[in-house]
């Protein structure tokens, strides 16, 4: 605010009356799409339309965890490529994304969860993703502060260890991609709200914004959890999405004690130590749809109880900050990437739930290919909206988070 | 975050006593002439309104009633039906 430096993505420009491509939403997915459209496909006449400012939504509210140990064969290759892209993007963008591949340790608290982990690990290994099943003692070696005794609510049976995952600095990704996209000529228009999409004879013709009308043949809505409401409101296309507030918090900073991202489905809690020393933790979602992004006492209590059971050394620690963001959940916990279906030139990339951060680079890369060639890349084909009426829902709901000691 | 729900039998209660039961989507489609699309619409599809919507709730830790209310999804406050009619979007 007080700096004389102009932002990395250039000075504010006047909105033109036409662009080749309009991207609604100034989050990571559209910044990545713009970057790849320009870099890989030579399409540089791009406007990114953002109601607030870039990185204001999910991009800046997630807990920055990245991993590729999802459940199904369609999802794993996508997340694996995303994981492989972090070091590549760090170089390409000439911007330190602070990728700390400290590994993810997923605690298992029942035999059912151990069995589910074996299947998840088999899927990961089949796709060349490193993931192992370890027992409680080995988990204790990795995280000495872990409580592996029997006297807690959900004793630890073992863990799924996924070494290539970790943490990426989410703001750096916003800034890096914005800089990268802008260098190729993409324009980022903040404080500009998309109000309507014009169509004629089944084709996209324009986007009406708070700063004027833009003529365009291609528009992509990827506005995080606001996508479903926008798509339904502007074009009448209903999506199988529920928008929920998801909360996260950080504790006061500590000396290094947690070398891995630790998560637990049964405790419904994950924790990792940031480079500043804070324990970042979260996982609680409101059980009813809402756009409030408010935090709750219910969640603070839950998080304190869970953490002080499986990481008892954190007892008595103070929470420093708490915040909320939105997650757009689909019935099969997998995203919707589609285009040129309901309207020629209309594309959507949404429904990522709480997986939007880990996937932003790869989703942007393939959505760019989709928009540039008007041909859906093979890797995105299973994510079409049609899958719901064809009853081809993906099996991501079988992921470990849903295995509790009750099943 | 204050969420209270007014149950038609038990009155105004803490929101955590209830289970959310989905957006109001009208009556279940009749079996005759049912297409995969119309069934999918009914089962999965939502409007995801950032504002007031009519929705179903189940009083799971109470009397067990199913009922619908109007709620503003941007504030979590219940809204009277009369207010909704006045501000109804096209």
Characteristics:
heterodimer; A: 407 residues; alpha/beta; FAD/NAD(P)-binding domain; 8-stranded mixed sheet; 6-stranded mixed sheet; 28% helix; globular; B: 90 residues; alpha+beta; Folate-binding fold; 4-stranded antiparallel sheet; two-stranded antiparallel ribbon; 2 helices; 17% helix
Polypeptide structure, described:
Chain A is an alpha/beta fold and 407 residues long. Chain A is built from nine helices and 19 strands. Chain A has a domain at 21-62 and 170-240 and 333-396: FAD/NAD(P)-binding domain. In chain A, the strands form four sheets. Chain A has an eight-stranded mixed sheet with strand order 5-6-4-14-15-16-13-17. Chain A has a six-stranded mixed sheet with strand order 8-2-1-12-19-18. The longest helix of chain A has 18 residues, at 75-92. Chain B has 90 residues and is of the alpha+beta class. Chain B has one domain (4-87): Folate-binding fold (2-Layer Sandwich), CATH 3.30.2270. Chain B has helices spanning 36-43, 81-87; strands spanning 4-7, 11-14, 19-23, 52-58, 66-72, 78-79. In chain B, strand 4 and strand 5 form a beta hairpin. Chain B is globular, with a radius of gyration of 15 Å. The N and C termini of chain B lie far apart (30 Å). The model of chain B has no long low-confidence stretch (mean pLDDT 90). The interface between A and B is medium-sized, with 27 and 22 residues.
**Helix proportion range of chain B:** 10-25%
Lateral strand order in the biggest sheet of chain B: 3-4-5-6
SS elements, strand count of chain B: 6
Strand order of the largest sheet of chain A: 5-6-4-14-15-16-13-17
Elements of chain B, N to C (H/E)? EEEHEEEH
Question: What is the level-2 CATH architecture name of chain B?
Answer: 2-Layer Sandwich
Shape estimate of chain A: globular
Which sheet architecture does the biggest sheet of chain B show?
Answer: 4 strands, antiparallel
Q: Name the CATH architecture of the domain at 21-62 and 170-240 and 333-396 in chain A.
A: 3-Layer(bba) Sandwich
How many β-strand stretches of chain A? Answer: 19
Oligomer: heterodimer
